Amino acid sequence: ASIYVTKEETAAILASQQNNAIEGAKNNRPGFTLRDQVGAWASLDRGQTGYLKYPPEGFRTIKVTHETLGVPKWEGSETENAFMIRTFLRQFGAGAIGYARVDDDSVGPRKPLFNTHVRLENNPDYKYDANGTFVMPEKCKYA
Question: Domain extents for the chain?
Answer without folding.
Answer: 7-91, 100-143
